[in-house]
Amino acid sequence: MGVLYPVEEVLLRTRSRYQEIEVLVLRGFGKTLVLDGLIQSSEKDEHVYHEALVHPALILHPEPRRVLILGGGEGATLREALKHPSVEKAVMVDIDGVVVDVAKRYLPEWHQGAFDDPRAEVLIMDGFEYVRSASMRGDAFDAVIMDLTDPYGSEVAARLYTREAFSLVKSAMSAGGVLVVQAGSSTLFAEAFEAVYRAVSANFKHVYEYDVWVPSFSYMNSFVIASDSYDFASLTGGEAQRRIEERGLRLRFLNGERLVAMRAFAGLRLG
């Protein structure tokens, strides 16, 4: 199975130690970041993916102050997390500094200056090693956002999808922390998704799937959200919308109704 997109222009094609990196202009989607042949985000709809990834977890938490982002080299995940006025510190850890440099140069529409925000700390290192050291230090992040390449894609992120990794992540979270994981597609790659879901479930009390259609991906992207303290299923659309408005979040895609709809998509699949 595959989808073909007309390439109107090649802005960059290079290779880092970890992966092939391309910035292409695709017809209908504009500038697009492609890693190892897989679309990561496009100018046309990156906001759909990044808002769906970040805000359900940060809205679920009543007052997120410290946020850890694993991956997210484009800077858009960092951008969305910093929209929450309660966030005092956002640490972004990406193993591939070349991707971050490419984003700074070619994808300003994505990061929108987030790398230079005084609340942001960007580290170029292995995310697994970071969470291992963070758990030993007793760090307490209120939210952890895992914006990695797909669990069935590059081997770069593979060990961050394991039960051991999620245990380390939990050790670096506050007692009321919330985790969200980009987990590929539960419909197209069910076995890989289920492995991630089971690994998260082994470590957290409340674990749920939610999904959103991302046009440039041509599939429903699946996420796993988890917490020991906050139950995602109990977050109503009305309460989600109230928190969005109360925090002054300027969002292009996500609102209370769509949050409930994303949760319902998973229910339809599981039902």
Question: What's this, in brief?
Answer:
This protein has 271 residues and is of the alpha/beta class. The protein has 9 helices and 11 strands.
Distance linking N and C termini: 25 Å
Beta strand count: 11
Element order: H for helix, E for strand: EEEEHEHEHHEHEHEHEEHH
Helix count, per DSSP?
A: 9
- At the first level of CATH, the class is Alpha Beta
Multimeric organization: single chain
| Shape category | globular
**CATH H-level superfamily:** Vaccinia Virus protein VP39
- Major beta sheet summary: 7 strands, mixed
- How many structurally independent domains? 1
Which sequence of strands runs across the widest sheet?
A: 7-6-5-8-9-11-10
- Helical content, roughly? 25-40%
Share in β-strands: 25-35%
**From the helix content, strand content and strand pairing, which structural class follows?**
alpha/beta
Mean pLDDT reading: 95
**What name does CATH use for the topology?**
Rossmann fold
Under the CATH scheme, which architecture would be assigned? 3-Layer(aba) Sandwich
Low-confidence stretches: none
Query: Gyration radius, to the nearest Å?
Result: 17 Å
Written overview of the protein:
The protein is α/β, with parallel strands linked by helices and about 270 residues long. The chain has a single domain, classed as 3-Layer(aba) Sandwich (Rossmann fold), CATH 3.40.50. The chain is built from 9 helices and 11 strands. It has helices at about 45-60, 75-80, 95-105, 110, 125-135, 165-170, 190-200, 235-245, 255-270, and strands at about 5-15, 20-25, 30-35, 40, 65-70, 90-95, 120-125, 140-145, 175-180, 205-215, 220-225. It has a 7-stranded mixed sheet with strand order 7-6-5-8-9-11-10, with helices on both faces. Strands 1-2-3-4 form a 4-stranded antiparallel sheet, with helices on one face. Strand 1 and strand 2 (about 20-25) form a beta hairpin.
